[in-house]
Design goal:
Shape: flat
Number of helices: 3
CATH superfamily of the largest domain: ADC-like domains
Number of domains: 3
Number of strands: 8
Structural class: alpha+beta
Largest sheet: 4 strands, antiparallel
Strand order of the largest sheet: 1-2-3-4
CATH class of the largest domain: Mainly Beta
Length: 144
């Protein structure tokens, strides 16, 4: 992301690419006091030429939502979730995938990528499921 050096009324405009799908629309994030307060389509964006879909333009409040997870959670033996380190969470997730695949077969694994992640992350999810488990059970919830 490249921040504009010009600020008006404490608002900084930062050029970036929308992460909702693979189109690659250019947009400007409007930020004040380290919080996104708006999104504008980039008029010179080669993929979108000044237009954005409803998600790209208006669905940004999740970034600073107070209920957004900021650390991994793992489930204890009693069924409750508790904070964990990234290493612990990833180790437990990996063990769970391997246990399921071993017990029920590779086609029991299903990967679902998020519509709120960059296309590159979605690509990695499908690559991981296809190469790591040998199945094509992959979807992405990016529906415009």
């Amino acid at each position: 992301m490249e921040s504009s050096h010009l600020t008006q009324r404490g608002v900084t405009k930062t050029r970036t690419i929308c992460g909702y799908c693979g189109v690659g629309c250019s947009l400007d994030l409007l930020v004040r006091d380290n919080r996104i307060i708006g999104v504008q389509p980039a008029m010179d964006g080669p993929a979108n030429q000044g237009a954005l879909c409803v998600k790209g333009q208006f669905a940004y409040d999740y970034v600073q939502h107070p209920e957004r997870l900021t650390h991994p959670l793992v489930r204890s033996a009693d069924g409750n979730l508790y904070p964990a380190s990234w290493d612990e969470a990833l180790d437990r997730a990996a063990a769970g995938f391997l246990t399921v695949a071993e017990k029920y077969g590779r086609h029991s694994i299903y990967g679902v990528a998020s519509g709120r992640t960059p296309s590159e992350a979605d690509y990695l999810v499908q690559k991981w499921v296809r190469v790591g488990f040998g199945t094509h059970n992959v979807d992405n919830c990016s529906r415009a």
